[in-house]
Amino acid sequence: MNILSLFAGYNWIALLCIITGIVFVIVEMNLPGFGIPGIVGIILIAAGVIIFADTPLQALILILIILVVLGAALFFVLRFASKSRLSKHLVLEEAVQDDIRFSAGAGLDYQIGSEGIATSALRPSGTADFEGVKTDVVSASEFIPKNSTVVITKIQGNKIVVKQKPEQ
Fold this sequence. Notes:
This protein is α+β, with helices and mostly antiparallel strands. The protein has helices at about 10-30, 35-50, 55-80, 85-90, and strands spanning about 115-120, 125-130, 135-140, 150-155, 160-165. The protein contains four helices and five strands.
């Protein structure tokens, strides 16, 4: 049995569906996201395989050929992506300067000792209001009821640790 004899008697509608579907999938490879061209391409490829293949062996061989073609297309799309219009949207071309540093808690040490009101129960995390600014806080391993006065004891990165102010 010759492999070419498996595909004797071409069904041109099926081949047109498969080729158009492959083109749609290749177009989708060049567009970010998963959208209409990819869905239409997959549907056309599936319809073409169903119409074209008379036996499961024909369907399997056809699917393998389609996967090889799409794999080669994906290889070329990825290889030349840095030179295409797509790279302008996906690749960051500017570098962050070395002298710029980012830290969520940098410079907040002056807040240590500030008093606020717990706007939720702290078990151990919750929110507190410090001079009109609602802030996510963590208690120092104790339950603090809502509307209690709290004091900032330390700041670790973006974590603000509070304790309940003793009643006077």
